[in-house]
Amino acid sequence: MSDTCTVRELTADDLPIVLAWRNHPAVRSFMLTQHEISMQEHCNWFARVKEDKTRQQLIVLDGAYQLGFVQFNPVSYGGIADWGFYVRPDAPKGSGKKLGQAALAYAFKKLGLHKVCGQAIESNVASIALHQKLGFTEEGRLREQQRIANQYHPLFCFGLLAKEWQESQLKQEQNNATN
Q1: Count of CB atoms situated within 10 Å of the CB of 108
Q2: Is 39:98 a contact under the CB 8 Å cutoff?
Q3: pLDDT beneath 50: ranges in the chain
Q4: Angle at Cα 4 formed by Cα 94 and Cα 69, nearest 5°?
């Protein structure tokens, strides 16, 4: 991870750019709900979630550059949360890994989560590969679980425990020290 990667809370000022990312066909085509979201719908969502302390909506930055959006839900210390994320459509190669590493550090260090869970539709090969690169374990496949455009799709389910993440961080530090 770049030393300059940071995570901050989503603000109302971020809504137009996050909506543009979310509605971009390269992002939207892999979402579980694929309709184009209106600004009103987006603002209504933000109004609901911004006061909910069990939800975290975040922007990941590499220096001043916004890499993308991440959310965790439900958040409680020592808890298990689902995450969702997307990298901005024009982000350079490798941004997904940077975003994931920064978000997971935030989840396990700052939020104190025990486990982070993720899902990806079968056609989202990049998300499946990213989960694997980040150390997630595939915990199952839900057959014909998500209906998109009148067709059912399987969901891949992933999980990463805090202790597994910590072990991978130690190994990475040891590798960096020997190189």
Answers
A1: 21
A2: no
A3: 1-2
A4: 60
The alpha-carbon radius of gyration of the chain (Å, integer) is 16
Task: Output the average pLDDT for the chain.
Answer: 93
Interval 117-161: pLDDT, tens: 999 999 899 999 999 999 999 999 999 999 888 899 999 999 999
pLDDT of residue 3: 59
Helix-strand-coil split of the chain, %, nearest 5: 40, 35, 30
CB-CB contact of 101 with 6 (8 Å): no
Helix or strand (DSSP H, E) at 179 = none
The whole-angstrom separation of Cα 67 and Cα 69 is: 7
Number of Cβ within 10 Å of residue 7's Cβ equals: 19
Query: What are the helix (H) ranges across the chain?
Result: 15-23, 25-28, 39-49, 95-105, 125-133, 162-178
